[in-house]
Amino acid sequence: MHIELKEVSKHFGPVKAVDNLSLSIDSGQLVSLLGPSGCGKTTILNVISGILPVTSGTILFDGQDVTKLSPEKRGIGLVFQNYALYPHMTVLENISFPLMVQKMPKKERHARAAEYAELVQVKELLNRKPAQLSGGQQQRVAIARALSKKPGILLLDEPLSNLDAQLRIEMREEIRRLQREMKITTIFVTHDQEESAGISDKIALLQQGITQQYASPRDLYDNPANLFTASFIGAPSINRVPGKYREGVFYAETAQIKLPPQLKAPQDRDLILAFRAESLIVSSNWEETHLGAPLDDVYAAGKDYLALLRIGSALCRIYIPEDQALDKHDVPLRFRNKGVFLFDAETGERYS
């Protein structure tokens, strides 16, 4: 099912929760709506599902205008953050409930419920009630219930937020497996960038109801459209050094940084030099350096080691080899060919 949003807005009084959003999702894709709390992710999901009416704009499913259709006529499956299972019903009854609403005969709906229970690996739990299930099991039951009516679109609203870290990873992989196996168009709402990168074909990154960038996870990381995208995507967060550009040199207070030739910007504007932790490396000799910086500290971050360096007024993090010996007072550094950007400090616009 192909989904297209054309200039969709949703206002709550003076608040523009979604502002003139246009988005196209190809059939069979899994797309994440990603962004900080209050950016409009769940509102978009509720508008697509029909739970909320739009203020303006058009929603198309396979070219059909569904903007004014009720939720039950849109052919969607919806999984909420709290799973919303019926506590008095068994797993079998929960999964088959949408089919009962559709007046499917009992034998047929129970057979289909068992089929989807097996698909999400909870078939042995059919006679249990939700209180007897773990969080991951409840999650699987909620997904089976959403899929049992064979929707054209699956909508997932922060479905992993109530699970512990390891289970989140396992369920993320399970959702991706099911989605690929069934080839169902899926929209996944999350505020977790690692989660979205691990599950999505494309990500719509949102801020204050406006799309900042819509691209693959790799492209968001390697080619951020603006400073917000560069800062939101990536861990550790991208390093940001304020300063000005003049003739190939970036002036950051006391630091003078020779920039790679591909980096250019208007002269004497307030800028942000931003670079990934892996994009600035220790140089083997001073002739190949772009800058020198004093060392603050070195610490382990899982399997990696990070060095903290002072560049102008900014404290920056870069990856270093485990056995790298560094001069505390002046570390020679050079930039790699990617992961280094110049942004306008006021507008966030990317120059290079």
Q: Keywords for this structure?
A:
single chain; 352 residues; alpha+beta; six-stranded mixed sheet; 8 helices
Could you give a quick summary of the protein structure above?
By secondary structure, the chain is an alpha+beta fold. It has eight helices and 21 strands. 24% of the residues lie in helices and 34% in strands.
Description:
This protein is of the alpha+beta class. Helices cover 24% and strands 34% of the residues. The strands form 5 sheets. A 6-stranded mixed beta sheet has the order 6-7-8-3-9-10, with helices on both faces. A 5-stranded antiparallel beta sheet has the order 13-12-11-14-21. Helix 3 crosses helix 4 (135-148). The longest helix has 18 residues, at 165-182. The two termini are 37 Å apart. The model has no long low-confidence stretch (mean pLDDT 93).
Average of the residue pLDDT scores: 93
**Major sheet size, sense and barrel closure:** 6 strands, mixed
Oligomerization status of the protein chains: single chain
Number of helices: 8
Q: If you compute it from the alpha carbons, what radius of gyration comes out, rounded to the nearest whole angstrom?
A: 25 Å
Helix percent band: 10-25%
Helix-and-strand structural type: alpha+beta
Strand segment tally: 21
**How would you spell out the order of helices and strands?**
EEEHEEEHHHEHEHEEHHEEEEEEEEEEE
Residue share in β-strands: 25-35%
Q: Which shape, going by the Cα principal axes?
A: elongated
Major β-sheet strand ordering: 6-7-8-3-9-10
Cα distance spanning the termini: 37 Å
The stretches of 5 or more residues where confidence is low (pLDDT under 50) are none
